[in-house]
Each structure stands twice: as C-alpha cells, then as structure tokens.
Amino acid sequence: MRISVSRLARRLRVERLGLGGPETALSDIQLAALAALERKGPMTPGELAEHEKVQPPSMTRVIAVLEERGLVLREPHSTDRRQVILTVTPDGRDLVQRVRRLREAWLAQRLQELTPEERQILRQAAPILEKISQS
Predict the structure, then answer these.
(1) CA 126, 132, 135: angle at the middle one, nearest 5?
(2) Where does the HTH marR-type domain lie (predicted)?
(3) What is the CATH number of the domain that holds 70?
(4) Which of 12, 36, 42, 55 yields a CA-CA distance of 20 to 30 A from 110?
(5) Coil, strand or helix: which one is 88?
(6) Please, which residues bridge with residue 75 across strands?
(7) Angle 104-107-110 from CA coordinates, rounded to 5°
(8) CB 38 within 8 A of CB 92
(9) What is the pLDDT averaged over residues 56-69?
C-alpha cells in the first residue's frame, strides 16, 4: 500500500510539473501550504506549520518564498501584535485552483478506466486513507 500511495502522489506531482508555469517553481511543501491557506482560510504561521506537520522554522522559509512571489500576504493579527495572519492573494488562489483542476482531470480520467466495482471500493477506502493521512 505504501508503494502504491507513494506512486500515486508522485504521479500527481508530475501532472503539476507538466504545466511548465509558475506552479513548477514551487516545492511540494510550498504548494501544500498555499493550498491549505486557500482551502482553510487565514492562519497564523504557527497554525499553518501545525496543519502541515512541519516545524515552525521550516514554515517560516516556506512563507517567505510564497510572500516573495506574491502568493500570500502577511497582515497584523487583530488581537495579538506579536502575531501575523497569512492570507492567499488572488494570484495564489488562481495558482492553487489551476493545479487542482489539472490533478482532478488526470485522476478523473484514470478513474474512468476502472470498473464500477473498483470505483466503489476506492470510494469506501477514501475515508480510511484520509484518517491515516491526518494521523
């Protein structure tokens, strides 16, 4: 199972790299952090690090790259002056959505190649895989 999941993840990464645009300049963790902000909404850097299960110093470097490329904004926290809130810019949102559409199209095509029974098995397995991924 580990090998299959790893191969699927690698295959989805290859689809992103096939775009040849600014998406290819981001690392997997940079894109994951940007996607988390796009999906979950504004977060502090600490919340984002925790969500992505990386150490805060690593997330600081990720955020710096995303900010430098105009994909996220830092704004003052409304109640804690020591904190900042990260939000996705329109360019960041567009990039995430473009990558998501490409990956979903590739995956939809592969799923259509399966039998209805195989697709049903995958639907049943999806919550279990999600549970494992969140542990």
Answers:
(1) 140
(2) 1-131
(3) 1.10.10.10
(4) 36
(5) strand
(6) 85
(7) 150
(8) yes
(9) 95
Cβ atoms within 10 A of the Cβ of 15, count?
A: 16
For residue 23, give its domain range: 2-133
pLDDT tens across 18-62, in order?
Answer: 665 655 678 889 999 999 999 999 999 999 999 999 999 999 999
* Count of structural domains, the chain: 1
What CA–CA distance (Å, rounded) separates 108 from 111? 5
Nearest-angstrom CA–CA distance, 39 and 4: 26
Given a contact cutoff of 8 angstroms between Cβ atoms, the answer to whether 62 and 33 are in contact is yes
Q: Is 107 exposed, middle or buried (0-12, 13-18, 19+ CB in 10 A)?
A: middle
Q: Whole-model pTM?
A: 0.80
Q: Residue 25: helix, strand or coil by DSSP?
A: helix
Residues listed for the chain: 135
Residue 72 phi, psi dihedral angles, 5° rounding: -135, 155
